[in-house]
């Protein structure tokens, strides 16, 4: 019997439940489809080239899913609240008719169960279909070929999805039971009358609140554009950023609280417009709803902002990496040696001394320990760069137990020369001469010379952190010849600057070179030998993005005279003719142990930095690309859908609440079309303003993010606007259309009701 | 006796040409109901809500319709007011047959020729009194200045100027009904239809509202058709049609008698209808 009532209720309250069902179904579909990622990457052939990507992505996605399930859960509780609010009277009636609270609760629970169950079945079917399609999408994102396509079902994804849905169901149920359990019958019965009370605010105050909010938002924008993002984690920058964030949040909330009042006041001052047709009705309906809706509009604006920003940034990042990876992989294999600088050497020696004395002190009573202790490591600043190819021979290849079982020796020396064809070593020097306390040339100097600000996000803690690296002319010319390019001629007083970091810093360098800025170094006047940064001849190691943020090339004798300590040595290797890329990659990719590079005195002077093959740089670019795009789309889509669903539910319940008003309008001789137009105008405001606000926030945030990210190789967002736009058109626009069409139907019903009474 | 403000109003120019004596119907009927039938249901189960009803209402008349619940009086009002469609018969308002109108034209007709007052005042809860009264005019795209002038004028006449800036929830039931009356009158309609206007009011407010109706009828020359089951309310009219089982049972004219005398005659008919075993009124 209860079952029958519940089922009947779901059918009767179909309109209310439709949105609920739609959203829940969509949630299940998206959850399932995205959680099959680990199976998808298998079929798409991603795992074959990148072991662990699927697992990594899978674990990230399922973690995210929990977070998004929370968002969805909140959304469902919210959606459900609206349904419940309108049905209080009905629950009161059940109790008046003698049903116990337990029975009413049971009806409620059954209703929720029916809808959730339907959503689960529908959602899983759609998810199953979507996940098959997504394999192709995944393959294209990760740039792989589908070797063996077959229909698949992921039990893991199924379990996660069902788990999330059950959790959502339980939370919703608890909320519903509370509504039924707490309310007194008299409240339930008079609920509909209570809902009709319209609280209105003084429009002058609202307009003032709106203007204050708008001002706060503008202030926050100016602050953000001026300060940039806190990138180096300085506490002042962080707290300034936090203040900016708080201002923009407060501003957004005030903006939406005052919005309708402001619009009302603005339109009222235009008499001819206000007192025409249904304009005043539209405005008053907006103003009446502002109490219940303005806060969620503000929240939605913020969520949309997060969604837009994360999708755009993510996709752009992926796009940028794609564009720079070719330039970023000049040779088959690179490895890098990092020399210890004076400051590092002092610090490490001091640390060693402390630990050594601590060990001696602690072991004073135990002579054995002193005997067993190995000598303390000494660090020193290198006199000159070392031969990286030679030093590489100190690495030891260690075999795995499997390989040993197959007869491979446990350890063998790493003979890089055996696979190397032609190769080149590039040495970068610290621009602070030994014993000096300031670099000979810094980014700050160059910015001042061309009257440009330092790029946002640059570490400005000390002048020496802004120092450029220094390279000799002859070394750079060797590099150019190695790359098959024309050598340059600096002469006595020439210099040039290298960088592959993209627009932000290159704009400065290009201006410096283009304006012929003269530099005074060691009493010598230097002028630019080139008028542009040779971006294609500035890369010294395989990497997804530009790594050379600024290297100045100086005449050899000047570098020698400056007495600069070495900073980096890059070894760039192409495999020998007889060595295939696979063989070469396999050899350099074998597991090795490293040790610090020492000088003749046995002091450590350098440690090994990154090494990378062209192949794995490409692969990690593709993987990174896929990963970022995947997550960005997933998060973006779910957030947008969640926002749109909240708005839809609010709007539909708003239309239902205003039903009596629309009926009166019809009786007064307004056509259904005009009423629908008024509804459309209201809904456009509710959908459009949060979106516009989110977009505005995003534009400001993205312009700052671009500045920051440009430091790491530039970022272009043009290409991703399309995808972001598509997500919004499909998700947000779709919900908007559904909302309007359903509202239109509701209006038609209201208008018709009295006729059939 | 017309107040000076009345005759100076250009909007009322057409009305001022009409005979100035109240309670005297002119020859041209505003409303003509001819053989109207309304049938609900299907072949197995037919409900004849209106059964061949015919009557006319002349310009400037104040007519009451009485009947028990289910007698068909509300159905009649809905059919006349174009909210509901008749099964057969004709409804002519100012000579136009509204039963033949297309829905698009109907909305316009309703807007321009009819005024409504309901039991629950049916004001838009989000609008102030001024905006509620102005609504029929703005819907008809009357210029803003004209809208505001006419609203002010109407508010003055019905004594509700002080509450123009209030929202419905800030008014008493009587005030709400007077605002609704102002809204019905502001377009200067051919016919005003009131459905149980005093139904939700206490006796004092009901009396005030009915006096407003008299004012509307006598001073503004408005033609009013009021459905009620309250004999006291009906006694304010010139003529009462009694409806039972979808037919006109009888008709009472006030003529020259006092309201009190008319009330007693109405009560007699009500008692007679009730005495024949029908539903109590």
Q: Architecture of the domain at 28-124 and 188-275 in chain B, according to CATH? A: 3-Layer(aba) Sandwich
Q: Main β-sheet of chain A: number of strands, strand sense, barrel status?
A: 5 strands, antiparallel
Identify the biggest protein-protein contact and residues per side. A-B, 34 and 36 residues
Q: Estimate the mean pLDDT confidence of chain B.
A: 81
Order of helices and strands of chain B: HHEEEHEEHEHHHEHEHEEH
| First and last CA, distance of chain A | 29 Å
**Based on helices, strands and strand pairing, what is the structural class of chain A?**
alpha+beta
- Number-wise, the strands of chain A total 13
Strand content of chain A: 5-15%
Number of helices of chain B: 10
Helix content of chain B: 25-40%
**How many alpha or pi helices of chain A?**
26
Low-confidence stretches of chain B: 1-25, 277-281
Q: How is the main sheet of chain B built? A: 6 strands, mixed
Gap from first CA to last CA of chain B? 36 Å
Instruction: Please tell me what the overall shape of chain A is.
Output: elongated
**Unreliable stretches of chain A:** 192-197, 362-373, 753-757
- Radius of gyration of chain A (CA) equals 34 Å
CATH superfamily of the domain at 28-124 and 188-275 in chain B: P-loop containing nucleotide triphosphate hydrolases
CATH topology of the domain at 28-124 and 188-275 in chain B: Rossmann fold
């Amino acid at each position: 019997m209860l079952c029958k009532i519940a089922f009947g209720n779901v059918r009767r309250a179909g309109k209310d439940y439709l949105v609920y069902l739609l959203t829940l179904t969509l949630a299940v579909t998206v959850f399932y489809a995205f959680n099959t990622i680990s199976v998808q990457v298998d079929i798409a052939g991603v795992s074959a080239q990148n072991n662990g990507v699927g697992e990594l992505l899978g674990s990230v996605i399922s973690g995210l899913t929990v977070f998004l399930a929370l968002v969805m859960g909140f959304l469902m509780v919210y959606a459900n609240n609206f349904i419940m609010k309108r049905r209080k009277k009905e629950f009161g009636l059940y109790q008046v008719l003698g049903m116990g609270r337990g029975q009413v609760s049971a009806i409620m629970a059954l209703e929720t169960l029916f809808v959730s169950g339907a959503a689960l079945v529908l959602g899983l079917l759609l998810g199953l279909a979507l996940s098959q399609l997504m394999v192709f999408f995944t393959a294209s994102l990760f740039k792989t070929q589908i070797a063996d396509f077959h229909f698949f079902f992921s039990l893991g994804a199924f379990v996660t999805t069902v788990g999330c849905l059950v959790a959502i169901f339980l939370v919703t149920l608890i909320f519903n039971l509370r509504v039924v359990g707490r309310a007194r019958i008299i409240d339930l019965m008079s609920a509909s009358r209570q809902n009709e009370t319209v609280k209105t605010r003084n429009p002058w105050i609202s307009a003032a609140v709106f203007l204050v909010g708008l001002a706060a938002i503008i202030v926050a924008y100016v602050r953000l554009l001026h300060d940039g993002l806190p990138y180096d984690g300085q506490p002042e920058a962080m707290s300034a950023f936090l203040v900016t964030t708080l201002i923009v949040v407060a501003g957004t909330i005030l903006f939406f609280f005052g919005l309708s009042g402001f619009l009302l006041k603005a339109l009222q001052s235009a008499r001819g417009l206000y007192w025409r047709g249904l304009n005043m009705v539209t405005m008053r309906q907006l103003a009446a709803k502002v109490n219940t809706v303005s806060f969620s509009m503000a929240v939605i604006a913020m969520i949309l902002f997060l969604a837009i920003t994360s999708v755009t940034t993510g996709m752009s990042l992926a796009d940028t990496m794609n564009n720079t990876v070719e330039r970023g992989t000049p040779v088959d294999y690179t490895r890098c040696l990092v020399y210890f600088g004076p400051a590092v050497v002092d610090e490490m020696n001091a640390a060693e001394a402390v630990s050594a004395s601590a060990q001696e002190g602690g072991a004073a009573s135990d002579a054995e320990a002193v005997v067993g202790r190995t000598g303390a490591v000494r660090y020193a600043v290198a006199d000159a760069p070392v031969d990286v190819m030679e030093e590489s021979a100190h690495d030891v290849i260690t075999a795995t137990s499997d390989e040993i079982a197959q007869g491979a020796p446990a350890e063998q020396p790493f003979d890089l020369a055996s696979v190397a064809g032609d190769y080149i070593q590039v040495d970068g020097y610290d621009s602070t001469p030994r014993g000096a306390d300031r670099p000979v040339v810094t980014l700050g100097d160059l910015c001042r010379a061309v009257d440009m600000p330092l790029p946002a996000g640059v570490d400005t803690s000390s002048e020496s952190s802004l120092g450029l690296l220094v390279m000799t002319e002859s070394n750079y010319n060797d590099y150019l010849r190695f790359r098959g390019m024309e050598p340059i001629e600096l002469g006595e007083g020439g210099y040039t600057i290298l960088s592959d970091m993209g627009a932000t810093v290159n704009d400065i360098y290009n201006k410096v070179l283009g304006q012929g800025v003269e530099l005074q170094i060691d009493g010598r006047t230097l002028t630019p030998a080139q008028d542009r940064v040779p971006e294609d001849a500035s890369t010294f190691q395989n990497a997804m993005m530009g790594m050379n943020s600024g290297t100045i090339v100086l005449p050899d004798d000047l570098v020698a005279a400056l007495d600069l300590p070495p900073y980096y040595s890059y070894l760039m290797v192409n495999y020998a003719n007889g060595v295939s890329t696979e063989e070469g990659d396999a050899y350099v990719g074998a597991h090795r142990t490293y040790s610090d590079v020492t000088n003749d005195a046995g002091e450590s002077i350098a440690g090994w930095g990154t090494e990378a093959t062209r192949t794995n740089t490409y692969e990690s670019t593709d993987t990174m690309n896929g990963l970022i795009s995947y997550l960005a789309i997933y998060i973006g889509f779910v957030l947008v859908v969640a926002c749109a669903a909240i708005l839809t539910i609010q709007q539909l319940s708003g239309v239902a609440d205003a039903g009596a008003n629309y009926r009166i309008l019809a009786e007064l001789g307004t056509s259904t079309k005009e009423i629908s137009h008024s509804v459309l105008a209201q809904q456009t405001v509710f959908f459009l303003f949060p979106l516009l606000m989110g977009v505005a926030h995003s534009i400001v945030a993205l312009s700052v993010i671009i500045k920051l990210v440009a430091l790491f190789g530039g970022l272009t967002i043009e290409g991703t606007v399309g995808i972001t736009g598509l997500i919004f058109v499909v998700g947000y626009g779709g919900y908007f259309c559904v909302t309007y069409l359903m509202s239109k139907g509701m209006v038609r019903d209201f208008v018709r009701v009295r006729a059939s009474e | 006796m017309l107040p000076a403000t009345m005759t100076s109003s250009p909007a009322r120019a057409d009305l001022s040409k009409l005979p100035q004596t109240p309670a005297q119907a002119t020859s041209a009927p505003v409303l003509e109901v001819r053989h109207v039938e309304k049938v609900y249901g299907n072949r197995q189960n037919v409900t004849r809500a209106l059964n061949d009803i015919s009557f006319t209402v002349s310009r400037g008349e104040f007519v009451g319709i009485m009947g028990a619940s289910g007698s068909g009086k509300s159905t009649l009002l809905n059919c006349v007011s174009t909210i509901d469609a008749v099964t057969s018969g004709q409804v002519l308002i100012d000579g136009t047959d509204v039963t033949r109108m297309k829905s698009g034209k109907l909305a316009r007709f309703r807007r321009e020729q009819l005024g409504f007052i309901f039991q629950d005042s049916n004001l838009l809860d989000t609008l102030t009194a001024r905006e509620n009264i102005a609504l029929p005019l703005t819907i008809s795209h009357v210029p803003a200045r004209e809208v505001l002038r006419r609203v002010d004028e109407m508010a003055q006449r019905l004594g509700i100027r002080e509450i123009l800036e209030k929202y419905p929830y800030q008014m008493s039931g009587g005030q709400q009904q007077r605002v609704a009356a102002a809204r019905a009158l502001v377009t200067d309609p051919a016919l005003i239809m009131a459905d149980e206007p005093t139904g939700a009011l206490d006796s004092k407010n009901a009396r005030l509202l009915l006096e407003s109706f008299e004012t509307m009828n006598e001073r503004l020359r408005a033609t009013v058709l009021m459905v009620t089951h309250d004999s006291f309310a009906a006694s304010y009219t010139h003529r009462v049609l009694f409806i039972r089982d979808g037919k006109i049972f009888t008709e009472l004219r006030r003529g020259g008698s006092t309201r009190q005398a008319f009330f007693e005659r109405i009560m007699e008919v009500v008692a007679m209808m009730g005495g024949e075993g029908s539903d109590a009124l």
